[in-house]
Amino acid sequence: MKSSKPKAAENQSDIAAADLPILLDSQQQPAWHVVVLSFFTLGAYNMYWLYRNLNSLCQGSNQLQRSINGEDPELEDAHIRLGRAGTLEAYLKFTQARPILTTALFAIPVVNLLVLLGFAHMSAQLVPNRESFVRKNSQFSGFVVALLFGALTLLNANLLKWMPEPLHLLYLSSALPLALVQVWLNSHWKVVEDNKHLARQAFSPLELVAIVLGAAWIGLVVIHQDIKPGI
C-alpha cells in the first residue's frame, strides 16, 4: 500500500508533463500584442498578422475537414463543439483560403481594404456567441473594421499638412481594428481548443528584437523630425 502512492504520484506527474507541450500550443494571441508589434514595426507586422491567422485557419479547417471525412478522428470533439456553436460551416470555408496570395494583395493600397473587409467578415462569423451583434451583423462588422483601418491609415497623409511632424506616427493606430478582429478569432480558438491550451502572453525573442529596433527608430524620428519612417 505504501508503494502505490508514490507510483500514483509519478503517473500523475508524467501525465502533467506530457500535457505541457499541448497546453502551451495555442493559436490565440493577445490583442494588445497586435497593437504593440504593429506600432514598433511601423505597420509591417500587419502583413505577418494576416498571413499567420489565415494560415492557421486554413490548416485548422483542413484538418477538421479530414476529421469529418473520418481520416483524423482526434478532432471529433472540436467538430461537435463548433457544430453546437453554429460556426462549423463558417470555419470550413477557410479550407479554400490562399494565405500567400491574400497577404500579397493586402500590400496593395485600396485593395488591402477589400481584403481586410472579407477577412474581418469571415472572422466575425466565427464568434461562438449566437446572440453576438458582431456575428449577427458580420458584413457590417467587417465593413466597420475596414473603414476604421483605412481612416486611421490616412492620418499619415492628413496630419502632415497642418500638425507637428511626429504626429504622423498616429497612422500606426490603424492596428486597433486588427486587434478587434484578433479578439473575435481568440473566441473561436477557445472553442476549437476547448480552453485546454494556454495563450502565450510573453513576446518571443524575435518579437522583442523587433520592438527594440522599432523603438530606437521611432525615437530617432521624434528627435530628428527630418527623418520619415518608410514602410
N-C termini distance: 68 Å
Q: How much strand content do the residues show?
A: under 5%
For the largest beta-sheet, the strand count, sense and barrel status come to: none
How would you state the average pLDDT, rounded?
Answer: 82
Question: What topology emerges from the helices and strands here?
Answer:
Elements: H1 4-23, H2 31-40, H3 45-68, H4 76-85, H5 88-92, H6 99-106, H7 111-124, H8 133-136, H9 138-153, H10 155-159, H11 175-193, H12 205-223
Helix pairs in contact: 2-11, 2-12, 3-6, 6-7, 7-9, 9-11
What does this structure look like?
The chain is built from twelve helices and no strands. It has 231 residues and is mostly helical. The longest helix is centred in the N-terminal third of the chain and has 24 residues, at 45-68. It is globular and about 60 Å long. It has helices spanning 4-23, 31-40, 45-68, 76-85, 88-92, 99-106, 111-124, 133-136, 138-153, 155-159, 175-193, 205-223. α2 packs antiparallel against α11, α2 (31-40) crosses α12 and α9 (138-153) runs antiparallel to α11. The protein starts with a helix and ends in an 8-residue tail after the last helix.
Keywords, separated by commas or semicolons:
231 residues, mainly alpha, 67% helix, disordered N terminus
Summarize the structure.
By secondary structure, the protein is mostly helical. The chain contains twelve helices and no strands.
